[in-house]
TrEMBL record:
PROSITE patterns: TSP1. Keywords: Disulfide bond, Repeat. It comes from Periophthalmus magnuspinnatus. Gene3D superfamilies: Thrombospondin type-1 (TSP1) repeat (2.20.100.10). This is Complement factor properdin. InterPro entries: CFP_TSR-0, Compl_asym_regulator, TSP1_rpt, TSP1_rpt_sf.
Length: 365
């Protein structure tokens, strides 16, 4: 069974009965010799119970870590610097006693040792020369400070030669500072430049002003003017649109004549759309149509010319049993419109009058 250290104030009867710690300390599971510190916080327990393990440690009233082990000396510290910079002197080293019963350490040694030493004569090896003065902390006016520095030697045994401050400061006074201009607060917005937004989107604007007077720029020395603009504009987008009265567009070309033959009428139209009436504007006044007289030519029907004279007969006598001689005549179809035809034929065939039978043929024929 593992022996558990009772923790003050923990009531768990399966492990320990109720434990009171009249001599309670803050207990740690490890005492670190190299740093004389405690690690591994266990909690508040009785000091005798904490030190049941000699490797443990506890926190004393002054906040130091105390080892639970037997009294022992720590390692010696490094030797201190020699007490003189030049000639015979003394240097020291120290060690600490830790553990329970520290008074027994004095029986086995001392906390401090001293030995003779010779100073290294650090004449001239203390401070370096002062650096140049820095620029003033301000560029004009009062309240500025400039500084310079010096450095102590890197040799540790000669650092005692460095007495005094490593930095030196001094007030610096410069010419008067210029006063740069500052803007005043913006004025209230002025009234809008119009009462409505026009047809073409021209929105009225409002303006407000500010002045470079808080403070005004100084003259000597000259200060800078205020950056930015002294005038600010804003569109009055909350205004209603202006009423737009309607305007007539151009007349259209005349339409077709109302009759196809003779005298009639043809119409022209226009629209109220240049511009259209909007936002309560008036409609165009006057008619949207107009008429004009038109004259359509009436069509002339096609017709025949008079017949031509009869042609000569195709023969001079009547044959016995063959085709009798004939004659022809012609006429022309006239079309004033340049198209169409005339009813009937353009040529005619007729007998030859007054012919006698050819010789040698019987008159009975």
């Amino acid at each position: 069974m593992v022996l558990m250290t009772p923790v003050c104030g923990v009531n768990d009867t399966r492990v320990w009965p109720w434990v009171f710690c009249p001599d309670g300390v803050r207990c740690f599971s490890q005492f670190v010799v190299s740093t004389l510190s405690c690690e591994g916080d266990i909690g508040q327990v009785d000091k005798d119970d904490c030190c049941f393990n000699p490797k443990y440690g506890y926190e004393t009233e002054d906040g130091q870590c105390q080892s639970c082990g037997p009294p022992s000396w720590s390692s010696w510290s490094e030797w201190s610097q020699c007490t003189t910079l030049c000639g015979a002197g003394v240097r020291l080293r120290r060690r600490s006693c830790y553990g329970i019963g520290q008074s027994d350490c004095e029986k086995t040694g001392h906390k401090q040792e001293a030995e003779r030493c010779d100073g290294t004569c650090c004449d001239g090896e203390g401070w370096s020369l002062w650096s140049s003065w820095s620029a003033c902390s301000v560029t004009c006016g009062k309240g500025g400070v400039k500084s310079r520095n010096r450095k102590c030697t890197d040799r540790s045994e000669c650092k005692l030669a460095c007495s005094g401050a490593a930095e030196d400061t001094q007030d610096c006074v410069l010419p008067t500072c210029p006063v740069h201009g500052g803007w005043s607060a913006w004025s209230e917005w002025f009234e809008c430049s119009g009462s409505c937004i026009s047809l073409h989107g021209a929105t009225p604007i409002r303006e407000r002003l500010r002045s470079c007077s808080s403070p005004p720029p100084s003259v000597l020395p000259p200060g800078d003017d205020c950056p930015g603009d002294s005038l600010q504009t804003q569109q009055c987008t909350e205004l209603p649109h202006c009423a737009v009265d309607g305007g007539w567009g151009p007349w259209s070309d005349p339409g077709p004549c109302s009759v196809s033959c003779g005298e009639g009428l043809q119409l022209s139209h226009r629209s109220c759309d240049q511009p259209r009436p909007e936002y309560g504007g008036r409609h165009c006044s006057g008619p949207s149509t107009k008429s004009s007289v038109c004259d359509s030519p009436c069509p002339v029907p096609n017709f025949w010319t008079d017949w031509s004279h009869w042609s000569e007969c195709s023969g001079t006598c009547l044959p016995d049993g063959g085709t009798a001689p004939h004659r022809t005549r012609r006429r022309v179809c006239v079309s004033p419109s340049g198209s169409g035809t005339c009813e009937g034929s353009n040529h005619e065939r007729g007998p030859c009058p007054g012919l006698s039978y050819c010789q040698g043929q019987s008159s009975a024929l």
